[in-house]
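ingest -> validate -> predict -> emit
validate: passed (alphabet ok, no gaps, 379 aa)
predict: started
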Amino acid sequence: MRLELLSGLKTPCYVYDVALLRRTLDAVVASQPCGSVVHYALKANSNKHLLQIIADAGLGADCVSGGEIRLALAAGISADKIVYSGVGKTDDEIRLALSQSIGCFNVESVEELQVINDLAGASGAVARVALRVNPHIDAHTHHYITTGLSENKFGIDISVLDEAVALACSLSHVQLRGLHFHIGSQILTLEPYKLLCEKVNALQEKYAGQGVAMDYINVGGGLGVDYDNPDENPMPDFAAFFNLFKTHLHLQPGQSLHFELGRAIVCQCGSLLSRVLYIKQGLDRQFAILDAGMTELLRPALYQAVHKIENLSARGGEMCAYDVVGPVCESSDCFGTDVELPVTHRGDIIAIRSAGAYGESMSMQYNSRPLPGALFINE
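emit:
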């Protein structure tokens, strides 16, 4: 990132490398299985400019709120390529999705299934649904972002799936399309996905034997990125990810395969830029106090996430250790401890890398702080 491009930039601000985003999308489209659909998970980043680029690449949308459904439609994503997930869909959100005839509801409980049927019946519609299965797979990630274990709030436990399938088949205003899975986030090995394929294959064989027709399998997303080395690894190995499913997932004739990728697409293209307000000398350590804080990037405070931190305006080669912190009145407002940086001064520009996912979308106005701006660079 050339420093002259940032001259006069008001911080804190998100800066997005649009060229990298386009290369990432090209890699996704080139390596995904033939006939499959990749639904971009808007919760990762719903910036309208980025979403338009993603929509132009032909991706669908994975939404978890009515607001995200509206954003996806406004970006030009067709309703039949929108899936609607989430454990707490409100009646108004369900009605919105029904009115737009979205492609599929990812249903998280038998209680939700009944509500969708009732609301669809009241509007004279039939809701296309997939049952989100909790397959008891440990994705070996942070406990705040794992979603496939028995104690998680997400999905229908595999032990009661038969009941949910029977109910879906009996209701007159839902059409059971198939099964949906999502085992976690920031998954860095492919082994959990292989285990997922084995679970899906077994369930497929079971329900096919019972005469339950399904034309839809959604294996979710969760593919992780390299937060430590964003320049060396600007995108995940999409080919290896997709090839695993080509090899190990046994689709039945006529079934469509769906993925939900978010972080893997947008994470590395975004950085949070901030200026140093003060270098404070403590008793045993130095603090670099930034004008960005947990209000702009919540991940470190929320689940101890680690991002690469760089001084873009450093003027010398001597290194020093800093606790890099924000201005918010919370002790958890810390981006990193003992971070080795070139000797840093007031006014220096600091980049917090790999912030394109769950950065801007989670920003907030705690302490009555303004939301951060966004700059798009296409080099």
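The chain has two domains: 3-12+268-377, 18-266.
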